[in-house]
Amino acid sequence: MPKFHIQKGDVKSRARAGTIVTAHGIIETPAFIPVATKATVKSLTPEMVGQAVQAQAVLANTYHLYLQPGTEIIQKAGGLGKFMNWSGPTFTDSGGFQAFSLGAAFGRRMGKVWGAEERSRNNELWIGTNTNVIPPNSLFIIPNSDSLASIDDDGVTFRSVLDGSTHRFTPEISIDIQHAIGADIIFAFDECAAPDADYQYQKRAMDRTHDWAERCTRQHEAGIMNKELGGNKNTSSLSPQALFGIVQGGRHKDLRQESARIIGSMDFDGFGIGGSFDKDDIATAVGWVTAILPEEKPRHLLGIGEPMDLVLGIEQGIDTFDCVAPTRLGRFGTAYTASGRINLLNLRFVADMSPLDHDCHCYSCSNFTRAYIAHLFRAKEMLAATLASIHNLHFLIDITNRAREAILNGSFQEFKEKLLK
Questions:
Q1: PANTHER family, per this entry (predicted)?
Q2: What is the per-residue pLDDT across 402-419, written as a single tens digit (0 to 9) for each?
């Protein structure tokens, strides 16, 4: 069973440096976890993820792997890590986010993080004609499409994004699928409500998440018992997986605190913080939750990964993060730099012989210029997405690594102020 140890905390905040020990290696926290949705980090080989990016773990998507190639194939291969040739720790989400992305959000330009701009265009469709300006927390969605997910108190009914066939996820089914996939850390099935859902619906979704969390713990315990008794000879996991419960409640303080108390009281190995947030004050909502969750267990912030959000999340006691933004932005020509994002399709980069970021020492910045990578994008060469994604992932991982070092040497506040400036 994965174990969490806090090595040192910041005296002026909730930030802490620690280790999560799994059957497939140690995760030094704080850590950013790249998303390997379909058992691959898009455009990168596993060796690139481990060496050029220096990632410690990856997170895959239960819903998408269930549809393709199917859990039986992954189980036959020996589990997620062996299937994708990744020897380090692995996470899987529960499929709960797809209840939102294929349900309330489907057909609209809507992500889980909203600000004034998003609220003002509440009902607009995302046409997606300019793929160079996809917001990092938005979903690239087919316009004018019917919802592909419907939710009831027992679970979620999906229509496949591949062929339209109907599938059913319940808390029990989600846990069984994740057991078969064999990741080291798995998440309870939850409902991520839309950011424009009213208070009553956010509470209903939260209550449903709490009910599903209890069902997940029972199914997880039954699965572990089955393995110990030898009832599942084909299991890919050599030791029991860690189950994280998920806190919901949207952008409402009372709901977030209630959810943190209820989920925090359950027998989970760690906790995820999910749901919708206010773009302008994610850290405050995270702080409502981490002030209540048990100190001795790890906390994961689901689907949040902008540079500033990482630092502010760490300050509030978050240990691990995941987000598709660095590879999504990278595929469309956007790169992180110390002074903000740059779009390599802009004309000014055609003859720019400097690296993507002067302070970065990743493989892409050490060997290639902005002009070269911009040329690759204009020529529609596949290497463009690879080099930009390596840099973006390394950029975020370097932030969490430096935050960890600062916590350990007692200079986290100075690190935070310098970085945010």
A1: QUEUINE TRNA-RIBOSYLTRANSFERASE
A2: 999 999 999 999 999 999
Q: Quick: pLDDT tens for 6-65.
A: 999 999 999 999 999 999 999 999 999 999 999 999 999 999 999 999 999 999 999 999
| Residue 254 designated active-site | no
Q: Which of 10, 93, 319, 357 is catalytic?
A: 93
At 278, give phi and psi (nearest 5°). -85, 125
Beta-carbon neighbour count of residue 338 at 10 Å?
11
Q: Using an 8 Å Cβ cutoff, are 313 and 301 in contact?
A: yes
Identify the CA nearest to 315 among candidates 16, 5, 7, 27: 16
* Rounded Cα gap, residues 165 and 156, in angstroms: 14
The annotation places the binding site for substrate at: 93-97, 190, 248, 275
Position 152 in a domain: no
Q: How many domains does the chain have?
A: 1
d(CA 44, CA 213) in angstroms, rounded, equals: 34
Is residue 41 assigned to a domain? yes
Copy the structure tokens of residue 258.
């209630």
Mean per-residue pLDDT of the chain: 89
What phi and psi, each to the nearest 5 degrees, are found at residue 260?
A: -65, -40
| Other beta carbons within 10 Å of 379 | 9
The enclosing domain of 193 has a CATH number of 3.20.20.105
- Spatial CA neighbour of 24 closest among 69, 74, 72, 84: 84
Say which of 10, 184, 309, 322 is annotated catalytic: 322
Asked, for residue 221, whether it belongs to a domain, the answer is yes
Residues whose CB is less than 8 angstroms from the CB of residue 7 and which lie 6 or more positions away in sequence, other chains included: 16, 17, 18, 19, 408
Q: By C-alpha distance, which of 235, 209, 213 is closest to 224?
A: 235
How far apart, in Å, are the Cα atoms of 124 and each of 109, 127, 194, 256?
7, 9, 15, 28
Residue 395: strand, helix, or coil = helix
β-strands 277-278, 113-114 pairing: parallel
**Percent of the chain at pLDDT exceeding 90:** 76
Q: Which residues are annotated as a binding site for Zn(2+)?
A: 360, 362, 365, 391
The domain of 201 spans 3-95+159-323
Q: Is 357 among the catalytic positions?
A: no
Q: Is residue 102 part of a domain?
A: no
Average pLDDT over residues 256-280: 93
